[in-house]
Design goal:
By secondary structure, the chain is of the alpha/beta class. Helices cover about 45% and strands about 10% of the residues. It has a domain at about 35-75 and about 140-305: P-loop containing nucleotide triphosphate hydrolases (Rossmann fold), CATH 3.40.50. Strands 3-2-4-1-5-6-7 form a 7-stranded parallel β-sheet, sandwiched between helices. Helix 3 packs across helix 4 (about 110-120), helix 9 packs across helix 10 (about 230-235) and helix 10 (about 230-235) runs antiparallel to helix 11 (about 240-255). The protein binds guanosine-5'-diphosphate and magnesium ion.
């Protein structure tokens, strides 16, 4: 593909993986983990969260921790608008898609350009899945950093395609990053929880909640709110009105969601809580195998049975099945 073509905002025909993923996130020295004990224990982690919650900083600290644990992560950046990349991404969307050019060529604003960039990248995502497949035996953690605005990934077709492509190949979990400081407001906390809950039901994948920035604010108050409904009500007391009543009802409704949730307090600047997070990831992987994989297999099997029983497997498309537009249609129009 000619990269100088004016309408081509993609950098080349194929994705390439740099060897950066095996390097120390700070020192830049190379190492190899081919054939180590992490074999067949791999998991994809899709890092989601509101803008500014600390996703990119979290991926950077996680990369450092994984390197220290001698299981370097395979890092993938899916944020085309990221300016200063604090970690060495093995695959970076910016090497394939020129976000500024997308904005110019398609006359889009920043958010539209991010969505379009992600859509363009998704057309090559099969190559990424192949690369991940090839590295499955040498890397344990495949970490996907997503664009700042959560809805770009979560509510876009490409976000869904990326999630599904990974989850159908290997264990995959969602890491939902929350800014603990900002969630001191009970209403903000509730919005975040509803978002996390909707992601869980939309992706049907295990979810690990990362309560980030605990160097600034302990996450204990969130744990209290999640385990003791009364404590959440107390915090709501200061506020009155419709929103308070709604939050009260929502807190009751989310009770079951909280009880199954794996929540870990983390500081992405100091590294506090990172090893606890990795334990939660191991649990999420097991959950994927025990619950999600079984459900997925059952779904696939029932879809196969439906096709077989309805004799749809013999279905062939016939030319002319979809009526072509009548060229003389214009003649019917009243002049
Ligand atoms: N104190 C503190 N700041 C953090 C932490 N994690 C992220 N930040 C800061 O939060 C801001 C947003 O972080 P960033 O990783 O860009 O968020 P993203 O938009 O979700 O990728 C930056 O200024 C980070 O330095 C943390 O654990 N502690
Ligand atoms: Mg980011």
């Amino acid at each position: 593909m000619d990269t100088d073509t004016p309408n081509d905002a993609t950098a080349g025909p194929s994705l390439s993986a740099s060897d950066e993923g095996d390097r120390h996130p700070k020192a830049g020295s190379a190492t190899s983990v081919e054939g180590d004990s992490s074999k067949n224990e791999s998991i994809c982690l899709i890092v989601l969260g509101m803008a500014g919650s600390g996703k990119t900083t979290f991926v950077q600290k996680l990369a450092e921790q994984l390197y220290e644990n001698e299981t370097p992560g395979y890092l993938i950046n899916l944020d085309p608008a990221c300016q200063d990349m604090p970690y060495p991404a093995t695959i970076d969307i910016r090497d394939t898609i020129n976000y500024k050019r997308v904005m110019k060529e398609y006359e889009l604003g920043p958010n539209g350009a991010i969505i379009t960039s992600l859509n363009l990248f998704t057309t090559k995502f099969d190559q990424l899945v192949t690369l991940v497949e090839q590295k499955k035996n040498s890397h344990k953690h495949f970490v996907f950093d997503t664009p700042g605005q959560i809805e770009v990934f979560n509510w876009s077709a490409s976000g869904m395609i990326i999630t599904e492509s990974l989850a159908s190949q290997m264990p995959t979990a969602v890491v939902y990053v929350m800014d603990t400081v900002r969630n001191k407001n009970p209403a903000t906390f509730m919005s975040n929880m509803l978002y996390a809950c909707s992601i869980l039901y939309k992706t049907k994948l295990p979810l690990v909640l990362v309560l980030n920035k605990i160097d600034l604010q302990s996450e204990q108050f969130i744990r209290d709110w999640m385990t003791d409904f009364e404590k959440y009500l107390d915090s709501l007391e200061a506020e009155q009105g419709f929103i308070t009543n709604l939050n009260r009802s929502l807190a009751l409704a989310l009770d079951e969601f909280y009880s199954d949730l794996k929540a870990v307090g983390v500081s992405s600047t100091t590294g506090m809580g990172m090893n606890e997070f990795l334990l939660a990831v191991d649990q999420a992987r097991q959950e994927y195998i025990d619950i999600y994989l079984k459900e997925r297999t059952q779904l696939k099997e029932s879809a196969r049975q439906t096709i077989l029983s309805s004799n749809m497997s013999n279905l062939t498309l016939k030319e002319g099945a979809i009526p072509e537009e009548d060229e003389d249609d214009d003649e019917d129009e009243v002049p």
